[in-house]
Write a structure and sequence with these properties.
The complex is a heterodimer of chains A (224) and B (236).
Chain A (H helix, E strand, L loop, with lengths): L5 E5 L4 H13 L4 E4 L7 H6 L8 E4 L2 E4 L1 H11 L10 H27 L2 H17 L17 H6 L1 H13 L10 H12 L1 H6 L3 H18 L3
Parallel strand pairs in A: 1-2
Antiparallel strand pairs in A: 1-3, 3-4
Chain B lengths: L5 E5 L4 H12 L5 E4 L7 H6 L8 E4 L2 E4 L1 H11 L13 H27 L3 H26 L12 H7 L2 H11 L10 H12 L10 H20 L5
Parallel strand pairs in B: 1-2
Antiparallel strand pairs in B: 1-3, 3-4
Helix pairs in contact in B: 1-3, 1-6, 4-5, 4-6, 7-9
Protein name (chain A): glutathione transferase
EC number (chain A): 2.5.1.18
Catalytic activity (chain A): RX + glutathione = an S-substituted glutathione + a halide anion + H(+)
């Protein structure tokens, strides 16, 4: 049905785009995917997301939406099958809290841990580990953040350990290890084992090369 | 229904705490207020918000929730019946738009206002004024789209985006009076200027915007604190 058409504008290596792909896959929603060249942004993207000019953008019934976590909530509210957010307001508040925590605190400290040097790097790595360890609170007594099945938080943050693993390969530093973060570690492996999750992941080697280039830009632009 | 204990850990001067207060008022929920000193941080705060140790925190049935916009959504979802207005719109796309603009405002507004107060010279303030002016321009435009001709972003009554943006009006006035430069002006944002008056006068909001002179008074020690942090390269 044309009126119901769903379009996702994305970039293959973008974690926020991956979140949306997972949500659409979990709900069984058909969509048209448009790969954006971020070094040469299309008029379409700039038109749909004039504020941030970023991917992902979801276009549904001709109306565009930006910001991945908001898109996830929109998807969950529009297509009711396989709910992503929990039912109770308290658990929903916590799901939103942890997802935001990853974006606001974990990601910047992880990036700092990988892009700084010397003593600053040690400090950043410590902070990153502390933040990651905090996530284990959300896993208390559960297999996934969503409980027995994956939910909102799992797909909001499931990309992070994968990316961290890739950067760990490049930089030779360990942020998530089985001993200090056992719950996070088992969650991550269980999450990645799910076929629908695996299917959407960008290929390892391609992502490795892309991330190497990205890190080089980061480290050359950060102050000594 | 047991209107069980609802507590708010807050600070009188915090725009984020104000959001929670407005939401509770819209739903006619009585609550107990703990005024947080923040220096040192109370045990209650550290226990209720171990991740950020910040206000506001809402404690309902003994369970804490933090982050102001998340708390507002929680309030809307928990007390959702025919007796009180909805805070978020009902249509999913409108809800997404309200959240989008609220998040945008959070990213840009207060950090820029803080910087205006913190940096030393007019030259240094200029780029932050530019950010605020851009936000005003975009939000003026958003107002047209969200309100659809009605008095508030939320339509007939104060809603999510009204709360998100309106909570900053107190501190905006302080910033404007400190340096004599207005940001929310009729020429650039005619709808928002009128909206701001309606917002401040609305029963859900009246009395919750902190007293201007008191805010100006605390802006001075805050300025000293933020400048000291900035001087040692720390985030203020």
């Amino acid at each position: 049905m044309d009126g119901d058409s769903v379009k996702l504008i994305g970039f293959w290596a973008s974690p926020p785009v991956l979140r949306v792909k997972w949500a659409l896959a979990l709900k069984g929603i058909e969509y048209q995917y448009v790969e954006e060249d971020l070094s040469n942004k299309s008029d379409m993207l700039l038109n749909y997301n004039p504020v941030y000019k970023k991917v992902p953008v979801l276009v549904h019934q001709g109306k565009p939406l930006a910001e991945s976590l908001l898109i996830l909530e929109y998807i969950d509210e529009t297509w009711k099958q396989n709910p992503l957010l929990p039912h109770s307001p308290y658990e929903r508040a916590h799901a939103r809290f942890w997802s935001k925590f990853v974006d606001d605190k974990c990601v910047p400290t992880v990036i700092a841990a990988f892009s700084k040097g010397g003593e600053e790097q040690q400090k950043a790595a410590e902070e990153a580990r502390e933040n990651l360890k905090m996530l284990e609170v959300g896993l208390e007594g559960k297999r996934f953040f969503g409980g027995d099945k994956i939910g909102f938080v799992d797909i909001a943050i499931g990309w992070l350990p994968y990316w961290i693993g890739i950067v760990e390969e490049i930089v030779g530093m360990n942020l998530i290890d089985a001993d200090s973060m056992p719950k996070l570690n088992s969650w991550f492996h269980a999450f990645l084992d799910i076929p629908i999750i695996k299917e959407c992941m960008p290929p390892h080697d391609k992502l490795l090369n892309h991330t190497k280039a990205f890190l080089q830009v980061l480290t050359s632009s950060s102050s000594p | 229904m047991g209107e069980s204990e609802v507590k708010v850990i807050g600070k009188w001067s915090s725009p984020y705490v104000m959001r929670v207060k407005i939401a509770l008022r819209i739903k006619s929920i009585e609550h107990e207020h703990f005024e947080e000193t923040l220096n040192p941080k109370s045990d209650l705060l550290l226990k209720s918000n171990p991740v950020y140790a910040k206000v506001p925190v809402l404690i309902h049935h003994g369970k804490p929730i933090s982050e102001s916009l998340i708390i507002v959504e929680y309030i809307d979802e928990t007390w959702s019946n025919d007796n009180s207005p909805s805070i978020l719109p009902s249509d999913p796309y409108d809800r997404a738009l309200a959240r989008f603009w609220a998040t945008y405002i959070d990213e840009k507004w207060f950090p820029s206002m803080k910087s205006i107060i913190t940096v030393e010279t007019e030259e240094e303030r200029e780029p932050y004024y530019k950010v605020l002016e851009e936000v005003v321009e975009r939000v003026e435009d958003a107002f047209g789209k969200c309100s659809k001709g009605k008095p508030f972003f939320g339509g007939d009554s104060v809603g999510f985006l009204d709360i998100a943006f309106g909570s900053f009006l107190g501190w905006l006035r302080v910033t404007e009076s400190l340096y004599g430069r207005k940001v929310l002006v009729e020429a650039k944002a005619p709808s928002l200027v009128k909206w701001a008056e309606r917002f401040a006068d609305d029963p859900a909001v009246k009395g919750l915007i902190p007293d201007h002179d008191k805010l100006v008074e605390i802006s001075k020690p805050l300025q000293i604190k933020w400048r000291a942090l900035a001087a040692i390269g720390k985030k203020y």
